[in-house]
Amino acid sequence: MHFLLNGLSIVLIDLLLAGDNALVIAMAVRSLPMKERRLGIVCGAGAAVGLRVALTLVAGQLLSISYVQLAGGLLVIWIAIKVLRDASESQAEVPPVRRFAQAIRYIVLADITMSTDNILAIAGASKGNAGLIVFGLALSIPFIVFSSNLLSKLMDRYAWIVYLGAAILGKVGGEMMLTDPFVVRTVHPAAAVQYGVEAALAFGLVAAGVWWSRRRIVPTAG
Predict the structure, then answer these.
(1) Is residue 205 a contact partner of residue 79, using CB atoms and an 8 Å limit?
(2) Number of other residues whose CB lies within 10 A of the CB of residue 128
(3) CA–CA gap between residue 203 and residue 120 (Å, rounded)
(4) Are residues 121 and 17 in contact, defined by beta-carbon separation less than 8 angstroms?
(5) What are the angstrom distances between the C-alpha of 141 and each of 46, 50, 62, 205?
(6) What is the DSSP letter of 220?
(7) How far apart are the first and last CA of the chain?
(8) pTM of structure
(9) What's the gap between Cα 113 and its chain centre?
(10) If DSSP codes are grouped into helix, strand and coil, which group holds residue 26?
């Protein structure tokens, strides 16, 4: 019974915490053709789970090391900026292989820094059972693949979802940076400061994306 309850807990954890990773994957593969997009989502989700398995044993220590979350937050912001710029530019001149490799690179880099909460939650719910840990990490693949597919299709239909995704990544990046042990120890940011920074980053990314999108529109003569 305890095994089944722990397994159910892991399923719920995967459902709740896979959203950030699915959002990054969906934004990273948005510029790919549909066939390559599906492959990119599967490869990205597989790489994400592989990284989680590798990081499970050191996840707890990672959160206590200074600069890890600071660097991770900066990386998430950088990825959001790159994705927004890629979305605002024509992809016709970029070789498909290069675009595919670039999307996978974004996914892997982001997942290294964004999966720690998922890993810790699964490790705690498994009570140290290696089989449950592997089950939980492997189970996240279909969740991420389904969510990424759905999000990427919605982004094709509704451009505002791209900006919403960028805003969420700005919030996530800001939270990661301000909860880094070094930042907490030296700056002691108050809750209001943290919320203000997260809001500023979210708004700044959306504003930058809108600006890049408008630059792409060239007025016709006459």
Answers:
(1) no
(2) 8
(3) 30
(4) yes
(5) 7, 10, 23, 28
(6) P
(7) 75
(8) 0.68
(9) 9
(10) helix
